[in-house]
Amino acid sequence: MRVILMAVLCASVLAGCKKDDSKAGALNVTIDYSGFTRGCVTVTATDADNAGNTNRLDVAIPGKTPGTVSVAVYRKKDWGRVLSVTTQLHEVDCDGPVVGDPQEMKAQVPEEGAQDVTFTVRAIDGDGDGYFSSADAAGVVSGTDCNDGDTQVNPSATEVCNGKDDNCALGESDANDKKVWFVDADGDSYGSSQVEACTQPAGAVNRGGDCNDGDGQVHPDRAEFRCDDKDDNCNGMNDEDFDVGDDCKDELKCSGKVACASTPSQTSCARLPTENPVAWYVDGDGDGSKGQDVGLGCEAPVVGAVTQSEDCDESSVYVRPGLPELCDRLDNNCSNAVDEGCDTLAWTTQAGVGGNADVTAIALYDEGRKAWLVGTDKLVHFDSTTGETTPFTKPSCKGKWKAVWASASGRVFAVGEAGRMTTRGPGTSDLECYTPTAPGSNAQTTLYGITGIAQPTEPTVYVVSNQGKTFKWKEPYNNLSVDLTEFGTVPDNLRAVSSAGSEDTLLAVGGDGSNKAVAYRYDTASASWQPDLQGGAFDGQLRGVHVTDGRFAYAAGENGLVLKRSGGAWTPLPTVYESNGTTKAGIRGVLAFSEKGIYVATSEGRILFYDGAAWTTAYPGGTPLSSLDGPSPTRIVAAGEGGTVVSFTAPPPPVP
Asked: N or C: which end of the chain has fewer CB within 10 A?
């Protein structure tokens, strides 16, 4: 192929132009090429003496390889004869990308004929797509085709997601069919910010819509799981499953609106500002007046509760407004004064009741007018209304008796050493007693405590022993295999038992191997004694217990120890001392009628009274006492050495 390049631009290809007479000779520019069949070479001629005189011509490759193209270059009459000729290779066509460095030669145009100027170009287009291989090889023009073995890969190709760089630029990052992915910062398989890529980027997922990509529990397609004033499932709503704002009642039954609580996933009832709880009261002691605080509320927490306290002492049936004031050391009428108008309260002492043998225990009945006294080989009935004393001396009635209890009908139950028990009615005839032995007892078994619970006919009695065994004895009291049975065993020395008239209020007290106070509560659900006071919290063995009702109980014993049980917890009252003020008293009996009305009898022979603040001497004594009993604060009796009986009967109340 041969074309003519004039020194002046008259056409893109000047072959066949009319020759200028001023021109003599030409440059015959030959370009030898190989390795490709498509392309273009730009030939430029420039006056070496005047760079402003220049012209160029694009020469298309004729489509075969190897091959040659030639260009005839004539000078313009006003140009110099020395021309600088350069060639520049293009891929595909004359508008294609420039590749390789330009080649330059200087030659003088002859006056006649032609001067040959030869250029050589070598490039590789293995797949024939017009783009040269970018492989770096010596003597080969490096093109822009990054895969010269695939006609679909070249700079003019459309980049798509197919695992290869179709247009030899930026990999697949400029593909026009990239998928949409979402950055998942919290690892919950839902993303937030969008990213486009052909393949899934690290840390990205194919699901978006995460409204909180910093919390892995918050994402679409889940339930609203926290009440927190936030959108947990990214549906554009906050806390829709928690009924926020609905009407409600709080724990005090005050009106409010459902609101989110401080604890996640929970709600609370936010009380309305117009609702304020008040204290409510019930009749806890059964005296007809309501004064026991059962808590705050906008509604009554229990049926029958009132908002105004009606009672000044909810631990006692002997104290409430409207009662007459009695001479019993209690503020019976809630006047904030005790025994108004009463004279000094006096005690009566009798010695040798039923003989000079010591009394170990006493039990009253018939509102305290009658009593049973027991001791070693001593079983005595005493009637204070007549002053009559009746000893029972039959061998079956004798024993080393330690404790006694009497029913409302006057039947007596006594227990003592070697596991012996006895019972009989109150008749005055010196008849035999029925005296069995507790099951499993031996010579070392001592029955120290007894109490009874009334039944429709005769009572059921409960007995405790030094070996931790307990027994139950029910009517008719004469069938040992059925009527007298074991009632459970504990690992401690039990000294006393009491109840408020039902098995579920039974309490047994005593001491452990280290002489520490212990107490057990009978659990009717499991039919067993459960520890109620353990762990060596208090020094001294407990010798007596009085359960006033299901709420309160009192126990006392060695080292001046007196304990109060309330709300299932034991707390100590002030220590009781003997008359010298320094020796801790040995307490042998406890009797309670109020939190402000507690009596104890001591081995020194004194009877002391606790008014809720301090102990005072009610009876100064002198003869050691071993037992204390009384049906009410107006009738109290104690007994001890030498058949001593100390009694208090309240005088008539003062006349208003």
From this structure: C
Q: Which of 245-254, 483-492, 573-582 has the lowest mean pLDDT?
A: 245-254
Domain of residue 283: give its range.
Answer: 277-323
Pairing of strands 587-594, 255-260: unpaired
Smallest CA-to-CA distance from 27 within 121, 119, 107, 120 is with 107
Question: Which of residues 122, 154, 176 is at a domain's end?
Answer: 122
CA gyration radius, the chain? 59
Q: Which residue, among 619, 646, 618, has the nearest Cα to 630 in the 3D structure? A: 646
The residue-averaged pLDDT of 550-560 equals 97
Distance separating alpha carbons of residues 566 and 563, to the nearest angstrom: 10
Length of the chain: 656
* Residues 134, 344: Cα–Cα separation, whole Å: 127
- Assign residue 187 a region (left: φ > 0; alpha: ψ between -120 and 50; beta: otherwise): left
User: If DSSP codes are grouped into helix, strand and coil, which group holds residue 183?
Assistant: strand
Of 122, 157, 191, at which residue does a domain stop? 122
Residue 24's pLDDT band (boundaries 50, 70, 90)? Answer: low
Query: How many domains does the structure of the chain reveal?
Result: 2
The number of CA neighbours under 13 Å toward the Cβ of 640 is 22
Give the containing element (helix H, strand E) for 645: strand 645-649
Residue 434: which of 446, 444, 420 has the closest Cα? 420
Please say whether the beta carbons of 80 and 109 come within 8 A: no
- 77, part of any domain: yes
Q: What is the pLDDT of residue 507?
A: 98
Contact 389, 373 (CB under 8 A): no
Instruction: For residue range 527-541, list pLDDT tens digits in order.
Output: 999 999 998 999 999
Inside any domain, residue 21: yes
Going by C-alpha positions, the residue among 514, 592, 604, 584 that lies closest to residue 549 is 592
Contact (CB, 8 A) for 421 and 402: no
Q: What is the pLDDT of residues 360-371, one digit of tens each?
A: 999 999 999 999
Sequence-separated (6 or more) residues with CB below 8 Å from residue 525: none
CATH number at residue 114: 2.60.40
Closest CA relative to residue 104, chosen from 83, 123, 73, 122: 83
Q: Which two tokens stand for residue 93?
A: 């066509």
Residue 130 belongs to some domain of the structure? no
* 482: in domain: no
The 3-state DSSP class for residue 397 equals helix
Q: What confidence score (pLDDT) does residue 205 get?
A: 95
